[in-house]
Input
Amino acid sequence: MPKPYAFHTLLNESKENLAQLEESQAQTSSKSARREKIAGLVAGGSVENKSPGEIMRQEMDDLRREFMGEINGLKASRTEQDERIKDLEASSAELWASNAELSSSNSELRASNTQLSTSIKGMSTTLQHHSTMLHALHRRVLLDDARVLLSDTYGIPVNELRPGGQGVSSGKPKTLQQLVMDVRSKLRQDDAHWLHDDALKMIFDSSLGTLRPGGDAAAHCASKEDLRLAINDPGLTVSQTATLKNICAFTHKWHSGHLDTSTMIELMYLLDYILVVFNYEPV
Output
């Protein structure tokens, strides 16, 4: 029971007890006064042509009726107290039930929070993986755009803007440094301001450890889950999706225990059906 509620209940009970005590004192004073009155009447003789015995019986009847009224009042008070006790017991049971329900809800919320935390971690890992791949691809796009622009602006064939490409004048393959020097000699001043030697090397160099092959690796690497999502893209037609599934079955059959194409396709359709039935959403 909350402390403020208990305090108010105790205060109300104290007020009721004080009122009952004052009422009892008043009744005691009334009884004492009546006894003194009876004693005085008996000692002084008859009043209103009544004998002392009649007066005594009348006063006794009055006292009996008063006592019966007090007894009935106590019974009513007892009944009221019993009802209040029942109400308090019912309220206590409701509080216990509410507390149990809150405890159960709290446990469910904790379990749900744990599950959400796990999902968020999985989503963060997947997002980081995809972001890394996309960044590598976008860097590769930037380098390709720069090479195409150099080719269009200065009339240099794209195949000559690669280390090892055949030069038009010499007909011999060029090293990376020769390619950089050759292109720099053709640059206008405004382009040369942005394309220093390191920038030109980054555009042309495709050796191991540089940015260009990183984009190549990202462009040619995808997990099975990534492939499944790509194949089931809502933007594709039904025919395109079915054809891509056939191609996927063909390209990955040797990584699945040498399954034949038809079996692989059936397994893929079965997987899609299971995912739909269980309302699976990849994290």
Notes: The radius of gyration is 50 Å.
